[in-house]
Design goal:
By secondary structure, the protein is mainly beta. The chain contains one helix and six strands. The relative contact order is 0.19.
């Protein structure tokens, strides 16, 4: 099995479709890296990955918006094609197995997505845990 992990920003809002009775969420993730070339000039390279998430868990759809920082994991697929100008081109697709929201959007709606991220992290924790009480009287010093 080949597994690809990507951390990047969504290039546009996701699109949810139903195909043959199954839900698919399509989105594009951009991963950018900065590096110095052989002459010492700072360069930036961006790789775009088209993602398809086949799932019934569509509650994440409202939060997969342009600019959102995400972690995506899945199986990669590469396609070669001929561009309109006749040159060769390639695209990278990912069949998503897992997606996680990592932080706020660059567009300014950061609070909403951060709340969702922390909510999804706390889903599996027991909701009936007692609140922390002031225990300053029990300090050993």
């Amino acid at each position: 099995m080949i597994k690809l992990q990507i951390i990047g920003h969504l290039g546009k809002d996701c699109v949810q479709k139903e195909i043959n009775g199954k839900n698919v969420i399509n989105f594009t993730v951009a991963h950018s890296e900065k590096f110095k070339n052989s002459t010492g000039t700072l360069q930036e390279k961006t790789i775009w990955v088209d993602c398809a998430y086949w799932t019934d868990r569509t509650g994440i759809v409202p939060y997969l918006l342009k600019g959102q920082l995400v972690y995506v994991e899945g199986t990669p697929e590469a396609d070669a094609y001929t561009k309109q100008d006749g040159s060769a081109g390639a695209s990278l697709r990912l069949r998503v197995r897992e997606v996680q929201l990592l932080g706020g959007r660059t567009g300014g709606n950061e609070g909403q997505s951060q709340v969702q991220s922390s909510h999804s992290l706390n889903e599996n924790q027991n909701q009936s845990q007692p609140a922390m009480q002031d225990q300053t009287d029990d300090l050993p010093f």
